[in-house]
Design a protein that fits this description.
Elements (H helix, E strand, L loop, with lengths): L4 H11 L3 H9 L9 H12 L23 H7 L3
């Protein structure tokens, strides 16, 4: 490899010449499927309620009453204070 090869590669990266394949790779990723209501509820119960519960209320928020099948307004009104 010549001593100019790292300079040429660096120049290609700096000018964006190598970014086209990266953009194409990102665009080729499949979209994630939306979560079901049951999956959303399980996620909140396993990852969020451990800190955001009626006892700890981290950040002043309890998610114990969270139900993804209900609209946000009714959940906020029904959440215990």
């Amino acid at each position: 490899m010549s001593s100019l090869a790292p300079v040429a590669i660096g120049a290609a990266v700096a000018t964006g010449a190598l970014s086209i394949p990266l953009v194409a790779q990102q665009a080729a990723r499949p979209a994630l499927a939306p979560m079901s209501v049951a999956q959303e509820n399980d996620l909140v119960k396993t990852r969020c309620v451990t800190c955001h519960n009626n006892g700890q209320r981290q950040g002043g928020l309890s998610l114990e009453a969270f139900d993804a099948s209900r609209d946000l307004f009714s959940w906020c009104v029904a959440a215990p204070k």
